[in-house]
Design goal:
By secondary structure, this protein is α+β, with helices and mostly antiparallel strands. It has seven helices and eight strands.
């Protein structure tokens, strides 16, 4: 990180802690808090360069002149429903997970991170599970995320949480990505598996697809 970024990181965490957010136990010795976006965004912006230092992405926007002029206004009208969760060990940052609504019924998990000292202890999965549960309670019918196709550890963790592969994408800024989806409703999961060819349509799935009136 640059000197300015290194100074901003502890200041952003101090700003979050100063708001005295309510804490809930998440894992042994780790609590989770739920800041609003105005508290979480400075923390995210200040720490992400450090936590993703080994990730090869394009960090500067490559946009047209019109885009450069209008991007601020586009960001202002972007969906405002967000869930932000920050994990703390005492007053030290342990990790975060956050996401947002991108269309009716769909919650997109934008970014999750765990500091180096807390990795491989189940924190990533615990944060993801918390966000999934709260998205489902909010009424979302699909939770989606994208990951680099070579990020095996995270892809496996998501599959163990019940996600399934629902697409591939080539991104100019992030490279080759796999799209994963989790469906709170088991019938939606069954429908997705049928569409993918993993299972034969049966029962209610046949009815939903308009096959033979839904018979076996």
């Amino acid at each position: 990180m640059t000197g300015a970024a290194a100074a901003a990181a502890p200041a952003a965490l101090a700003g979050l802690l100063a708001s005295r957010p309510a804490r809930e136990p998440l894992l042994d010795g780790i609590d989770v808090v739920a800041p609003d976006w105005t508290r979480f965004q400075p923390l995210f912006e200040a720490w992400r360069a450090q936590l993703f230092a080994d990730t090869w992405t394009v960090n500067e926007p490559v946009v047209t002149d019109a885009g450069r002029e209008r991007l601020p206004a586009l960001r202002e009208q972007y969906p405002t429903y967000r869930l932000c969760r920050v994990a703390l060990r005492g007053d030290a940052l342990a990790g975060w997970s956050w996401g947002m609504q991108t269309r009716p019924g769909l919650f997109f998990m934008v970014n999750s991170a765990v500091v180096a000292a807390e990795r491989r202890r189940g924190l990533y999965s615990a944060l993801a599970r918390r966000l999934m549960q709260q998205a489902a309670e909010a009424g979302f019918q699909q939770v989606q995320s994208v990951h680099n196709v070579a990020n095996n550890a995270i892809i496996i963790a998501k599959l163990k949480l019940g996600f399934m592969v629902t697409g591939l994408e080539q991104s100019d800024t992030f490279g080759s990505l796999v799209q994963l989806s989790w469906y709170p409703h088991p019938q939606r999961r069954a429908l997705a598996e049928t569409r993918a060819g993993q299972r034969r349509p049966a029962g209610d799935i046949r009815r939903l697809l308009g096959i033979d009136g839904g018979s076996e």
